[in-house]
Design goal:
Blueprint: H1 2-6, H2 8-16, H3 18-22, H4 30-62, H5 65-82, H6 93-116, H7 118-121, H8 127-154, H9 169-185, H10 187-192, H11 206-223, H12 225-254, H13 260-288, H14 290-310, H15 316-344, H16 350-363, H17 367-383, H18 392-407
Helix pairs in contact: 2-8, 2-9, 4-6, 4-11, 4-16, 5-6, 5-9, 6-16, 8-9, 8-13, 8-15, 11-12, 12-15, 12-16, 12-17, 12-18, 13-14, 13-15, 14-15, 14-18, 17-18
Length: 421
């Protein structure tokens, strides 16, 4: 339910609605607003990369992982609702960027503590199912709240409670709905999750936190080197997985001539399929192991991506078929990645290691966009065609292959109690 509850920030705010609103002509010319959003997003990502492992480590030391998650979730709800005050005027651009960036940081750090709590609700026999079910619920919750606000406020000329599009009230009220959704639907998680009694370690400063982090990394390298290898591999393939969704809509419109309405319908179908498939693959995770699920997903994604590239002249039906099939394998790889790590984390280091998991992902998050752009440029040089956007899928496939290559030598976790090295 935490996945279901917190997902509006990712689906509605950062992907489909608020970011699009913030880069509209209401806030200035497209180049200015898009550049400003990119800079704000990059700065937020940098702060996450710096803060995540240290804050996760402090949660481990204090024994207050759930308390921290609760406070961060409430803060995320407040930041989401506060986007209501971003009126459609250039003078509000900075406010929107600051609130959006702060929300991104809080969302990522909350995700670290949330992932670290999986050991409370999962055993070695069902950690894959639990991780897959949670991730799948996130997909389904995100698309449901998107559809609710779309049909209740955005699509009608006059929506519920007389809300219209004047002064962008339909978008702004949707932000209030997101904040309320986050606040209400995460309550069940905090009824179940409780901080476990433990002896609290002394508080340490920032400098000492990084010193302890370095010592932990050296210890992890000596005791569980394959965990470090997995962190590197997952950083690569998770960036490729993010690229599938990030550039899917771009390809749908630019290469396959799908209308904006068709793209929204495709996005809804993709999220539903991704949610259901992630839950189903969670069962396979527990039977075959998380590494096998990741390998199957990555290989299938590369094959389907090559199909999209080779059949790009086939029109929308190609994208509806192969593109939709690709979305069914993104969530399973992400969820299995989380369950893999949960099986190998040394006892008492969940927050710290999941913090490193977030950091490594952020450090390489530029690779997928860069590969997408470089492949398009290469396609233009090699073919002389005016539109070689479809070459971008080769860039994403290359990132997935790189992650797969680093993953293959990683030793899969033996079945052991979660939290035991």
């Amino acid at each position: 339910m935490w996945d279901w509850g917190a997902q509006p920030f990712n689906t509605v705010i950062t992907t489909f609605v608020f970011s699009v609103y913030l880069t509209s002509e209401s806030f200035g010319d497209t180049n200015t607003t898009s550049t400003a959003l990119a800079v704000a997003t990059a700065l937020a990502g940098l702060l996450v990369a710096v803060l995540a492992p240290v804050l996760g480590q402090n949660s481990d030391r204090s024994g207050r992982t759930v308390r921290n998650l609760r406070v961060q979730t409430w803060l995320l709800a407040l930041l989401s609702a506060s986007l209501f005050f971003v009126a459609p005027d250039p003078s509000y651009l900075v406010l929107g960027l600051v609130l959006l960036g702060a929300g991104s940081i809080v969302s990522e750090i909350a995700g670290v503590n949330y992932n670290a709590s999986i050991e409370q609700v999962a055993s070695p026999k069902n950690v894959g199912r639990v991780s897959g079910f949670g991730w799948g619920m996130g997909y389904l919750g995100g698309i449901l709240v998107l559809l609710v606000i779309y049909f209740a406020f955005i699509q009608p000329e006059v929506g519920l409670f007389g809300v219209g599009d004047g002064d962008a009230l339909d978008i702004r009220v949707s932000m209030l709905v997101c904040g309320l959704w986050i606040l209400l639907f995460t309550i069940p998680a905090f009824v179940v999750l409780k901080d476990q009694p433990q002896e609290r370690a002394p508080r340490v400063g920032v400098a000492d936190s990084y010193r302890l982090l370095w010592q932990s990394l050296k210890g992890l390298w000596g005791e569980s080197r394959h965990t470090v290898y997995f962190l590197m591999a997952s950083a690569l393939f998770r960036d490729g997985l993010a690229g599938v969704f990030a550039f899917g809509a771009v390809l749908a419109a630019g290469t396959f001539d799908m209308s904006a309405g068709d793209v929204i319908v495709f996005g809804a179908a993709a999220n539903i399929l991704a949610g259901v498939s992630t839950m189903a693959f969670g069962l396979l995770d527990d039977r075959l192991g998380p590494k096998q699920v990741i390998v199957i997903s990555l290989v299938t994604l590369v094959v389907l991506g090559m199909g999209v590239f080779l059949l790009h002249d086939g029109g929308p039906m190609v994208f509806w078929t192969l593109g939709l099939a690709m979305t069914a394998f993104v969530g399973p790889a992400q969820a299995a990645s989380r369950s893999f790590l949960a099986r190998v984390i040394p006892e008492g280091h969940s927050g710290e290691i999941f913090g490193l998991y977030a950091t490594t992902g952020r450090v390489v998050s530029f690779i997928s966009p860069a590969a997408f752009a470089a492949a398009i440029w290469l396609g233009a040089r090699m073919t002389g065609q005016e539109n070689t956007q479809y070459w971008g899928i080769l860039g994403i496939a290359l990132v997935l292959v790189a992650g797969l290559a680093v993953l293959l030598p990683v030793r899969a976790p033996e079945e052991r109690p979660i939290g035991q090295s």
